Amino acid sequence: MARSLPPLKAVVAFEAVARIGSVTGAAQELGVTHSAVSKQLAVLEAWLGAPLFDSNRRHMTATPPALRLASAAGAALDLLAAAIDSFMPDDASEVLDVIAPATFAMRWLMPRLPAFEAEFSHIDVRVRPIHTGEEWSGIPFDVVIRRGEALQGDLRSITLLREEIGLLARPEVAASLATCADLAGIRLLESVTRPGEMARWLLAANMPAELAAGASRFGHFYIALEACLAGQGAIAAPIEVVSDLLARGDLVEPFPLLRVSGPEYRLGYAPAGLRANLAASFAEWALRTATIDAGLAAGDP
């Protein structure tokens, strides 16, 4: 017989709130935002057709029926966790879930992860790329990295790096760019997820921003970057994210003295979360790595 059960995510959120007595505490334990937990409580109340907590939500006191539900949910989740543990080898690594912007994850974070794993061999980092516009607050995470976005106050937040936007092209395309005025004769590339970057760079180069209006636009930055790598034109891109392409000579920066400042990348984690110690180690490593990269880019020994 099919079971009539509410969404598991809502049950997990409710059990944590009832057990801890606070939405904020539950959010920290689950590695999600305060609003994500509140949303799941509303989902469960709508499914049950009854309130889960007394009207004074300040103290988050569960109603008697909700207390029975929380007790049953806790016992069921414990049984589920024990069953899952039986599949795991005794020497299993500790898992750290990281969510990050797709291009940053693919081009900056993942290529550097072997260095992290060499230093912290007991931590298994699992990266979930997030696309621009994708709602991330309801996705469970231990560490979140966001571009140009302030993180909620219940997370410990550090600034990893700030982008510098430069003009990049294939060497054969850049060969035709003796001066910035030559840009009028080549195809410009831009992504809809990073609007205005080409126009800002053109203004810094004392070129009309209107040139950017004729740029070829792509749905995501990494697709526009692939078009640039295919020799289809020039792109305004974050130097930090494509540093490997510059180092290999796949792309060149014809006007390296012309750059504009871009947004910051911020890393956050819940200081009271279940994996806070692992997250803190990852945050320290990521900041150290970004600092070393910045020093190398500036020519520091």
Automatic annotation (TrEMBL):
Entries under InterPro entries matching the protein: LysR-type_TF_proteobact-type, LysR_HTH_N, LysR_subst-bd, WH-like_DNA-bd_sf, WH_DNA-bd_sf
MF terms (GO), sorted A to Z: DNA binding
Name of protein: DNA-binding transcriptional LysR family regulator
Keywords from the UniProt entry: DNA-binding, Transcription, Transcription regulation
Cited Gene3D superfamilies: Periplasmic binding protein-like II, Winged helix-like DNA-binding domain superfamily/Winged helix DNA-binding domain
Protein origin, superkingdom: Bacteria
Family the entry assigns: Belongs to the LysR transcriptional regulatory family.
HTH lysR-type domain: residues covered: 6-63
